Amino acid sequence: MTFAHYTERIDGLQYLADKMELSGSRVRRYLMQLPFCTRKETLETHFDILQKALDILSDPAAQATFMQLQHLFSRVHDVRGTLRALKENRVLDEVELFEMKYLAVLCKDVAGICLTLAFPYDNPDPLEEVRMILDPDNAGTVSFHLYDSYSPALSQARHQAAATDPEKETEQWTRLQDLVAREELAVRKRLSSQLSSLYPVLSESFDSLARMELWFAKASLARRFSMVRPDLAGVRSPDDLKIEGMFNPGIADALSAMNRVFQPVSLTLGRGPCLLTGANMSGKTVVLKTLALIQVLTQFSFFVPARKASVPLVKDVFLVSGDKQDQSRGLSSFAAEMVFLDQIMARIRGGLRALVLVDEPARTTNPSEGAAILCALVEFMEDHHVMSLLSTHYGDLGLSCRKIRVSGFDSSKVKDRPDPSKMNEYINYSLVEDLSDSVPMEALRIARLLGVDESFIQSAQKYVK
Amino acid sequence: MPFVDQIILYGSLSVVGLGKNTGKTECLRYVLGRLSEMKKVVAVTSIGIDGERVDQVTSTPKPEIYLEKGTYFTTAASFYLKKRFRAEICQVDEGGTVFGKMITARALERGKMILAGPSDTDVLQQWVRQTPQRFPVDVCLVDGAISRLSPASPVVTRSMILATGAAYSANIRTLVERTRYVYDTVSLPLAEEGVRKKLEHITQGIRLISETGEITDPGVGSALVPDQVRDLTGTCGNGLYVPGVLSNALLKGLSERKEAGETRLYIRDFTRIFAEPGVFYSFLRKGGRIFQLFATRLLAICVNPVSPEGYRLNSAELVLAMQHAVEVPVYDIKRIEK
User: A181 and A161 in contact (C-beta within 8 Å)?
Assistant: First the structure.
């Protein structure tokens, strides 16, 4: 599965992808094709590289050199077509030959800068041989034409053509021009065949330019959001997902635009299910989304939005929220949710190690069957030791699994007349262990805070059992 | 000719034909030749296809543009590859022309070329700005598209030459009148610095400018629909900024207002005026004023007395009549070459 797949499944991932400063669609394509990595050694190596890139970004002395590097990144042309032509042994035209020379000069410059920055990862080959082929006179410039020195026959034909008047000796001139074109083709054939033999190094250098740019874009993102390197080792409890002070970058940005602050939260998840309860508007969904985001970011070699994170690796991450209808297949939100959960469970039965995050399962059906579905889901997660977090409003389920709860409303913060638009200021988003079997009964209180008509609330109160 | 010295001073020039076969290409060829004699390095491009041997619309032979040795030129890759003279590729831009990749090259010997450069104003503007930074170029020349003045927009080049001629109108009086109209729009005064700074980043809708310089959006969109024009002219004050097209209906509406004489109208540049000459002059006669945020310097008007049908106007008579109507030098392009 690629990064592109996960941007469709995990909320907030596309937001971060959009925030990355990339020089163009060429590099964005590489980002979208990154594979979901499940190998710890690979990820540790990647995090070392990312840390090195971050060190360079944070070093004021390296700024000027880094700016040069970024400028070079922005000048890379998308020469996939030309590279494909070389791979298939086709004859390049003059413009394509220029593009190869240009790439070679650029790679040499980038390699030089990497040496200065002491950044030895994904460096392009300086392509010395390519430059020698395309700069026969050793002029050292990036410009290109089919030089006379490539072929005495070409040179001679050109001189003859130049000495002929196209107006007065039209026939002779045309004949000579055809000869020039033939000789040029012969030269292009020879150069293309020489370059074709260098296809592997040319192609690899082209790719490495994009990979290197991605490292710096990831580092820059980590800097912008104060993201940290996740700990994959988890020395003390290797199986626990343990996150301190996590935050959701997209939501934090949105809040910040309204002069509000995202309250970071901490939690630990072990193997097996955990229920998450909390009043409406208490941020349960955000907890689930942010956890999914952190897990996925880790496995795409990104730093993560938290103060500290210990992340065990999984083979896949599922975020299930019951409000997604699948109209293209004619499924209601409940049906879509059930089908998705069934697919996930089938894969887990097949031995898949996954992180499963479910937002209020079966919330769109009647409460008695909904609660039954939730209980069965918890049982399944228990039996299969699936690291999972399931949010719910259903209480008194008699389940023995672990439960955590959003602290919720802090009455002490509500002064005088509550302002409905500032609800989030009255909520303490931190998570606490919950030993009781009940759920917070705060729906009517919130409705009241939101300014809902009092007589209606009083009426509703009568029906509360 | 004196205007060639001025071109060097301004650093960039567009040559704009008021119609097909009005002598634009000859005019460009003349300027290129003169600059080459003066040992100036020139970069040249065109916003339409040009330099073809035969005019594609009228099938009449067209003068070919020869590029002197050392000239930089920008054209689409497909045209570049058809060249039959030596040139070196200096730069490739991934898009920019309607035909794809845009090549900037230097002629290593004299040769002729089909030029098909930047297809939109932004790319052209970048070309004019960056070419002298990238290459040792003294002057950037832009060959304007046929009957399309917009790419020669003053925001792009600092100076301009208009080419007009028998192909535009075979009657000297009509030709002079129509050219005079374009001349008058080009010559509209530049807005004062303060107003320009405030307005230049607004590119859509309509804005009202109060006596105290306050800028407000009347919320009538671009005032292109008659209803919007009516709403606007019924309620607006005397200061108005039209960032998009200044339509005939809007200008007419404005000149029919009681306060037409006090109206100050701001436009981006003369290329945005799409009004009939009668309406334009009526507005000005009533005392209304039009200011441009960006203006170019018109250096000369070149006339071509020959039409593609072979119709030939009296050169001396045409130049004299034209010279009476405008305050920039007028040349018969066929004559100054000799």
Answer: no
